[in-house]
Amino acid sequence: MATNLILGTVLLLCLIAVAWPFLFYPLLLRALPTVPEAPVDGPPPTASLLFCAYNEAGAMPEKLANLAMLKQRHPALEILAFDDGSSDGTGDLIAAQGDLVTLLRGPGRSGKAYGMKQLAARARGEVLIFTDANVLLDGEAVERLLARYADSEVGGVLGSLYYIGAEDSATASVGSLYWRIEERLKDEESRTGNVLGADGSIFSIRRSLYPDFPDSVLDDLTVSMAVVFAGKRLVKAKDVIARERLVTARKDEYRRKVRIAARAWHTHAHLRPQLQRMAAVDRFKYASRKIVRWFGGLFILVGAVAAGALAMRMSPSLYLAGALCVALLLWIGVRAKSGPFAALVDVLIAYAATLQGVAKAMTGRTVTVWNPAQSR
């Protein structure tokens, strides 16, 4: 009886841990008070828009047209790009638009963190706007983003990412659902004080807050968290819209998540001393949205073992029936291209990839360079 109680408790705790970032944490966030912003009158700050590219020739025509539209609306906007040793002519496409974009060419494969540092060192704007080579910004994005800096306590502003192509595959559908949840969590975090970290699709900081960091870290997380460490607010603007096409192939998404998780955990280790000095509410947010999620795969694995052991103790027939049922569902999901079973498999794959990336980083390995997904 005692063993059954222990197994049941372990299973319950694992279920709570897996659900925590998506169910319990959002509920607790909604109970926190709103921290208002205090804008003042004055001209908007000047801005520089930065992005890195590697073998993005297919995305460049649309990207450059998008940048031209933004430049027309904001003639003073400085635009800088870093080409990380592309072999498909990406750098040449950007260089051909020299009156629009200032191009820096890397010495070879150096990685995004290295490239962004080079761009930030060259930028002259009071606000640095970071985006990706395959991301398109809505026409009003820049002015709406800069407007949030009217509050002197705001040190960084995130935008909202809208994914395109959610209907193209189960992998894309799961990715879209995950990101919609992520966007809502960031909205609530912003309302209650600080968002705990940005992704590279669209975010910005005051240039004076740009930190120094090694090339091996996840620059999006490192740079955005520098705002919080400096005692300023990192907020999210719902009306600053960026758009990006989803990854549709499982193998591409798996590799992408392994890479991001490895670099995120490596970055976490690098930032640990500063993270420990954050306010209690920010430490709670960081642990809930990041650390608990990074180990979601482990919680699923431990919970599955506990459930299997509990079923075996109750009835070997129950254990066998449950195991066969799970195996059948996974087999159907692996073969299916859409539907709930395919989505279930993609969720499990995402957790497995994240756990693999974290384990990789814990052994001292990380990923510096990146390759664009071919299935976008």
Automatic annotation (TrEMBL):
Pfam families in the cross-refs: Glycos_transf_2 (PF00535)
MF (Gene Ontology): glycosyltransferase activity
Keywords noted in UniProt: Glycosyltransferase, Membrane, Transferase, Transmembrane, Transmembrane helix
Domain Glycosyltransferase 2-like: 48-210
Source organism of this protein record: Sphingobium psychrophilum
Family: Belongs to the glycosyltransferase 2 family.
Transmembrane segments: 6-28, 291-311, 317-334, 341-359
Protein name per its UniProtKB record: Glycosyltransferase
